[in-house]
Design a protein that fits this description.
about 500 residues, alpha/beta, 24 strands, globular
C-alpha cells in the first residue's frame, strides 16, 4: 500500500510534500524503506529520541509535535498540533476499513476463548471472522504470532485495514487493560464490546483493583455507540450495567450470565438448566431472541459465560437462534485451554493453568464432569516465583483425588527441589507422587486411570517447549496426549 503524503494530511490542514509513502510506524524498529515515522511520546520514552534510527531504517518523512525542537534531518519533518490526540484520526484516514465489524473483548479471564468462539460461530452464519489476541492474529486457520495481546495503535489500524481488504467481515479483538491505558485501540471504532469478568491481576501495573477496573471500562466509554455485552454475574459488570441503564444514554446493553428473571424485560442472553456431562455441557439458552436446548463439548461452568457472550454477538444482530444451535454443538476447544482428549475409558484435559487460582478454577471445572477420580499432573517453573509452589500444591490437593508433580520449565533450578517445594503445600502427602519426567508422568497416570476418571494436565497448554537450564527443548503436550490415545485405539483395534 502506498499513499500520497500531501493528500493524506490535507484534510487535517497540514502542509506536506507530494511524496508517496508506504506504512505509518510509531516504533522505529519496525520502520521499512518508504515508511512514515511518527515521533510521539510513549509511556516510557519519547519518539523524538528515535528519529535518526527511523531515518537510517528508511523513513522518508517524520511526523512530530508542533512544539518539538528538531531540525537538520535529511527527510521532511512535518509538525502537527497535538499529534498524540490526532493520531487515531490520522491512522483512520490512512488505513481504510471498509465497514469491517469490530468486536472488543475485555476482562481478566475468558478473552481468548470468547474471541475464538465468536470466530467459530461466524462460520455457521456465513461470516468470515478473524481474531487478534494471545494466540495470534488472523482467521483461526491462518494465525500469525504477535508480540502483544493487543498490538500497538498503528499496527492495529494497519492490521484491520489488511483484514478488510482480504474480505474479513468481523474481527474479535482481545483488548488488554494495558492496551487500553496506553491508547493502543484509540479510534478503531468498535461496534460491539464484551466484558467477561474482573479478578485480581496486573496490579503491578495499575496499582489497585479500582484503577484496573477503570482501565477496562475505557473500552466502553471510548466507544459509546458500541453494543455492550456484559457479564452481570460479575460484581463489576453488574455495577456498569446498572449505571448504563440508569443514565439513559441510549446504548444497547445485553446482559449475559445465569438466568435471572429480573432481566427478562431487557436484552439478555443467559443459560439455565445446566447439566455437566462427561462429554461436555448441556443447558437451556434463554434470550430476548428465543430459547433453545444447547449441547457443547466444552468443560466448566466458566465456559457457559464464554458461550453466551459469543452467542450474544450474533443474536443481537438478528441472526436466528436455530442457525447457532448446531454450531455450538461442534465447537472446538481453544488449543491448550481446557482442551479435551480421551476415549470411552478416560478423559485427559490439557490446560494452560499455571497459577494457584487458575489451577483451582480448572480443577473445579473438571470436577463437575467427573464420575470417577480426578487426577492432576502439574509442575512449577524454575527461576520464577517460588512462593506460589506450595500454594499450587495446596490447590491441587484440595480439588484432585490424586496429584502427580512433574517438570514444567525447571530452567536453572533443581527439578527435585521445585517438586519438594510443591509437595510442602500438600497436607496428605500420600495422595501425591513425584514423577519428574513429564511424558512418563502423563503416560503412567493415563495407564493407571480407571473408567470415568479425568486427568487434568496443567501448565503447558498450547506451549511447544520445555526449558532445562538454558536449553529450549521441543515438547508439544497436546500432540503427545493425542498420540497416546491414538496408540491406545490402535492397540484395541488389533
Amino acid at each position: 500500500m502506498t499513499k500520497c503524503l500531501k493528500s493524506w494530511l490535507a484534510p487535517f490542514a497540514v502542509e506536506a510534500p507530494e511524496l508517496m509513502v508506504g506504512d505509518v510506524r510509531t516504533d522505529s524498529r519496525e520502520v521499512k524503506p518508504g515508511d512514515v515515522f511518527v515521533a510521539t511520546k510513549g509511556v516510557a520514552q519519547d519518539g523524538i529520541q528515535f528519529i535518526d534510527n527511523a531515518i537510517v531504517a528508511g523513513a522518508v518523512a517524520v511526523l512530530l509535535d508542533a512544539d518539538a525542537e528538531v531540525t537538520g534531518k535529511d527527510v521532511p519533518l512535518i509538525a502537527i498540533e497535538q499529534l498524540a490526540s490526532q493520531l487515531p484520526e490520522l491512522l483512520r484516514a490512512f488505513y481504510p476499513k471498509n465497514g469491517l465489524e469490530l468486536l472488543g473483548i475485555t476482562g481478566t479471564n475468558g478473552k481468548t476463548t470468547i474471541s475464538q468462539l465468536v470466530a467459530q460461530l461466524g462460520e455457521a452464519v456465513a461470516q468470515k471472522v478473524a481474531v487478534v489476541g494471545t494466540l495470534g492474529a488472523g482467521p483461526l486457520d491462518e494465525l500469525v504470532e504477535m508480540n502483544n495481546t493487543t498490538p500497538g495503535l498503528a499496527n492495529n489500524h494497519r492490521l484491520l485495514s489488511q483484514f478488510a481488504a482480504n474480505g474479513i467481515d468481523r474481527v474479535a479483538m482481545e483488548v488488554s487493560s494495558q492496551g487500553l491505558h496506553q491508547g493502543r485501540v484509540s479510534g478503531l471504532g468498535f461496534s460491539q464490546a464484551i466484558f467477561s469478568n474482573l479478578t485480581q491481576d496486573h496490579l503491578d501495573y495499575h496499582g489497585d483493583m479500582a484503577s484496573y477496573g477503570e482501565a477496562k471500562k475505557a473500552l466502553f466509554e471510548q466507544n459509546p455507540q458500541a453494543k455492550a455485552i456484559i457479564n452481570i454475574d460479575d460484581a463489576t459488570g453488574l455495577a456498569w450495567y446498572r449505571q448504563w441503564q440508569a443514565d439513559n444514554s441510549g446504548r444497547m446493553v445485553i446482559a449475559v450470565g445465569g438466568y435471572d428473571a429480573s432481566f427478562a424485560e431487557q436484552p439478555h442472553v443467559m443459560f439455565d438448566e445446566v447439566c455437566f456431562a462427561s462429554d461436555g455441557l448441556q443447558f437451556k439458552l434463554k434470550s430476548s431472541w428465543g430459547e433453545a436446548h444447547m449441547c457443547c463439548p466444552l468443560y466448566g461452568r466458566f465456559n457457559l459465560y464464554n458461550i453466551v457472550s459469543a452467542l450474544a454477538v450474533y443474536l443481537c444482530e438478528g441472526i436466528a437462534i436455530e442457525q447457532l444451535v448446531s454450531a455450538v454443538a461442534n465447537i472446538v476447544a481453544v488449543p491448550g485451554r481446557m482442551e479435551r482428549f480421551g476415549n470411552d475409558k478416560v478423559v485427559a484435559i490439557v490446560d494452560y493453568a499455571h497459577t494457584p487460582d487458575a489451577l483451582s478454577q480448572a480443577l473445579q471445572a473438571a470436577s463437575a464432569h467427573v464420575s470417577g477420580k480426578l487426577w492432576c499432573i502439574f509442575g512449577c517453573g524454575g527461576d520464577r516465583d517460588s512462593g506460589k509452589r506450595p500454594l499450587m500444591g495446596e490447590a491441587a490437593a484440595q480439588y484432585a483425588d490424586k496429584v502427580v508433580i512433574t517438570n514444567d520449565n525447571p530452567r536453572n533450578e533443581s527439578p527435585q527441589h521445585i517438586a519438594e517445594q510443591i509437595l510442602a503445600g500438600i497436607a496428605l502427602t500420600d495422595k501425591a507422587t513425584i514423577v519428574l519426567d513429564r511424558q512418563q508422568a502423563i503416560r503412567t497416570t493415563l495407564d493407571n486411570a480407571a473408567t470415568g476418571d479425568i486427568v487434568l494436565i496443567a501448565g503447558k497448554g498450547h506451549e511447544t517447549y520445555q526449558i532445562f537450564g538454558d536449553e529450549v527443548i521441543a515438547y508439544d503436550e497436546r500432540r503427545f496426549v493425542r498420540q497416546y490415545f491414538a496408540h491406545q485405539s490402535e492397540e484395541l483395534a488389533s
